[in-house]
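Contributing new records

If you add data, match the layout below exactly. Sequence lines come first and carry their own label; structure lines follow with theirs. Keep one chain per record. Anything else will be rejected by the validation script.
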Amino acid sequence: MLKTFKTGGVHPEEYKLSGSSPISVLPLPEKVFIPVSQHLGAPAKVLVKKGDPVKAGQMIARGEAFISAHIHSSVSGKVSRIDEVTDPSGYRRMAVIIDVEGDEWEEHIDRSQEIVREITLDQKGIIQKINEMGIVGMGGATFPSHVKLMVPEGKKAEILIINGVECEPYLTSDHRLMLERGEEIMVGIRILMKGLGVTRAIIGIENNKPDAVNYMKSLAAGEDGIDVVPLKVKYPQGAEKQLIKALINREVPSGRLPIEVGAIVHNVGTAFAVYEAVQKNKPLFERVVTVTGKTVKNPSNFMVRIGTPVSHLISSAGGVLEETGKIIAGGPMMGKALTSLDVPVIKGTSGILLIRSDESRRVEQNTCIRCGRCISACPMGLEPWLLGKLISHQEYERAEKERIMDCMECGSCHFICPAGIPLLDWIRVGKSRVGQIIRSRGK
């Protein structure tokens, strides 16, 4: 019987339209817009100025806080200006704008296709290299990866969990990465294991990707301590706490991190980026992005330089058709609608989704009848209807007691609600306000 998490979850249509599309290298744009805050934590400090020449892989902003990440140029060219741009979340961020001139990389980067399997760095060296190369979580959270490897005093890492679930409808970037770069991912997993000091790793992959499951199993057969576990298809199985529950049946306590139960979770995309960083001296300046949707002529998976405008990706996939009503960064469950196609790809951009006009309109909102579907769907065991009601009445302290900060914003409650109530919107507003209140207590 296939494993899965027990509490909540929903089953949206999968629509993996680009699942059979191999990864293709996207042509360089004329200009890139590279935000200096593409990660959880403090923004990086800009190191370049207008007119400076840069190469691909050159550090252009330094992450100086404990939780931060370095930013590297994704192209060669000249810095045209330092200015604010709108990022995929809709916020204005300081960015380095570069006019592209050719494609010259830093000399220390190994651009060969040869797979380097021998890991020469020790544990400390691995963490330092991952930090230097600006690696962050590629599943969307963008937490600096080197910090995850620095296990707090008094805690012990027992197992590395690799997230190959990709449970969001439409998205296929992780799927294609496993099929096409599986060997490199395996080396990346061994690097992460050495960096953590663990001898066991589990790769979780949902069973709707049998080709990836079989291929990764064949690779894991030659690796000590690495297992591949197929999982029952259920959203949001790719969330850390749900994946830990499904794979090793341990429950992360409310408000705590996976290390509390001896687990550390990294995405397959992160494992690949770690391989390139440690074995190839390559900073994180490009990633695989799915461009898909029912109004996309050619659903595709592109290897994209960070800072590339979304318009460039969509144009390469066939352009925007007239019946497109909304464009989303990410998937339909957790992604956010874009206000402009000038928004750049960042380290956490896994997909660009085009939605038809008739599917992008919200249903007419009706009165909640306390049917309880949102409660049964919530993977965190919350009462979304109650949280929405509390926030609409500005009862923030009560919302905190009802564990609003445990919400992972998966959207299951919004998806399942027969009354069409925008529960996720209310909860996001509430989390922002409650977060402000919590932070103010520490002043």
